[in-house]
Amino acid sequence: MNDVIKLLKSHRSVRKFKDQPIARELLIELIQAGQGAATSSHVQAYTVIHVTNPANREQIAELAGGQSYIASCADFLVFCADMKRPTEASERAGSNVVRGMTEQLLVATVDTALMAQNVATAAESEGLGICYIGGIRNNPQAVSDLLKLPEHVYPVFGMCLGYPSHEPEVKPRLPVEAILKEDYYSDDSAQVQAFDDTMQAYYQSRSSGNKDSDWSQNLKPLFDNKLRPHMRDFLIQRGFEMK
């Protein structure tokens, strides 16, 4: 196992950070590493907002569900799916642009996620900790207004960056047998049941606080109710009509 694989397998979310700034030069390197990610047809359909205004960070922390580490981390980034830049460039080149296609939404979202994961890996290789913040989609319009995002741009998630002040354990993942299937989709209920036992043992032994739960139990709140039902209308209003 080489150092890159070892790094990727050691990822964990960090929510407590030292009061230590990240050098601007390093932040730029991380963004450039993000730009090295694969991108559909070289569209590069993403924009990253570096939120430095303390009041704005406090407001985003509340909009994201009271996640205080958004305000306390060294740097906070919002990764946005951006179809404004490539469609306008295409128009300037003489194209009769068709906007609002579902595929454009998918391309921009996938591009953004790939770019962000490169940033995360690069950050961790430099000893930084990261935490993705999907909670900004709790109030995506308010976040968009705060960041002055134009039409055809939407905030996918945030990312906290900083030097860790704690060392949380690596959370177990599903066994490879559950997700790697040969030729055809196959039943994985036995592997999931075994993984529930693994996660229950993890939750009861972890240093950050134990609880009596497992993987399947933790999924219940995500599927008991409609999750963020406002997102469809929000995306349509952003110009992602899903035609």
From TrEMBL:
Molecular function (Gene Ontology), one example: FMN reductase (NADPH) activity
Keyword Hydrolase: no
Source superkingdom: Bacteria
Catalytic activity, EC: 1.5.1.38
Keyword NADP applies: yes
Boundaries of every Nitroreductase domain copy: 9-163
Entry keyword set: Flavoprotein, FMN, NADP, Oxidoreductase
CDD domains assigned: NfsA-like
Gene3D superfamilies: NADH Oxidase
A Pfam family this chain is assigned to: Nitroreductase
Family note: Belongs to the flavin oxidoreductase frp family.
PANTHER family: OXYGEN-INSENSITIVE NADPH NITROREDUCTASE (PTHR43425:SF2)
Name this protein carries in UniProt: Oxygen-insensitive NADPH nitroreductase
Species name: Halomonas citrativorans
Gene: nfsA
